[in-house]
Structures are given as C-alpha cells and as structure tokens.
Amino acid sequence: MRLRASIAAAALIGGAIAAYLTYVHYSHTVPICVSGGCETVQKSKYAELDGVPVALLGLIAYVALIATTVIRGIVPVFASVLIAFVGVAFSGYLLWAQLGPIGAICQWCVGNDVVIAIVAILCVVRMLTEPTPAE
User: Fold this and answer.
1) Which CATH number fits domain 2-129: 3.20.20.60, 3.40.50.2300, 1.20.1440.130, 3.40.50.300?
2) Where do the H-state alpha helices sit in 74-134?
3) Looking at residue 93, what is its pLDDT?
4) Using the 8-state DSSP alphabet, how is residue 45 labeled?
5) Residue 40 burial (10 A CB sphere; 0-12, 13-18, 19+)
6) pLDDT score recorded for residue 131
7) What integer pLDDT is reported at residue 132 of this predicted model?
8) Taking a C-beta distance cutoff of 8 angstroms, is the pair 87, 124 a contact?
C-alpha cells in the first residue's frame, strides 16, 4: 500500500507540472521560469504533437497512472509500467529537443523528466513485488 501511495503521490506532482504547462499553453501566458528557456521551449514546434500540447498528453498519462495505481491486479500493474516507460521515452526525446534543436532548457520539463523517471522505477518495483491474486 505504501508503494502504491508513493506512485500516486509522485504522479500527482507530475500531474501538477503538466496541468500548469497545459494552462500556460491554452492561456497564452509566459511560464514562471528561472532557467530562462521555458518560454522558448513552450513555443517551439516540439511543444505540440499533431496540434495537441505535449503537456496535456502528460496530464492524461499522469491521471492514467494514478488510476492504475488505485486498482489491484496484474493488468493495471503492467499498464502502469507501460505508461511510465512511454513517458520516460517521450521525456527523453523532449530533453534531446531542448538540448539540440531548441537550444533552451525548461525547468518544468526537467522537473517532469525527474518525476516520470521516479514513477517508472516505482512502477517496476511494484510489478516485481506486489502479490497478484491467484486466478
């Protein structure tokens, strides 16, 4: 139970970051940023995927992670690992974009990278340690 609560708490933090960046996108405001690169990153072509803000996709993923954490069983456990690994891979791609083509770093994005990595590790630990009901 403690592990699932940790996953949910970390996903809640990631969801808060994603919600803030989604708000920034739709309100056309400048993100609060001390690194100086957040606005550049948020206005880049990498901030959207087929017209959908990547922050909104992240928010949806975090909500799904919280949902899979609440449910017991093998399917939600594997689903959480899959969602988290896709999130880590996509975050890696976006970090590459920041370091390369964009040439700017967004502190919110890096914070999300850290959170999704923690969530992925916790989801794997859950998969390896949580007993599943006998079928």
Assistant:
1) 1.20.1440.130
2) 74-97, 107-129
3) 96
4) G
5) middle
6) 74
7) 66
8) no
Tokens of 58: 């992240």
- Sign for the CA dihedral angle at 105, 117, 55, 108 comes to negative
Gap between the Cα atoms of 104 and 43, Å rounded: 11
- Both structure tokens of 5: 């609560």
What pLDDT is stored for residue 135 in this prediction? 46
Indicate the residue type of 89: A
Residue ranges, the chain, pLDDT below 50: 135
Cα separation, 61 vs 18, whole angstroms:
10
Domain boundaries, the chain: 2-129
The pLDDT assigned to 1 comes to 78
Q: Which helix (H) or strand (E) holds 49?
A: strand 48-49
Q: Which of 18, 82, 87, 85 is nearest to 53 (CA)?
A: 18
What confidence tens digit (pLDDT) does each residue in 46-70 have?
999 999 999 999 999 999 999 999 9
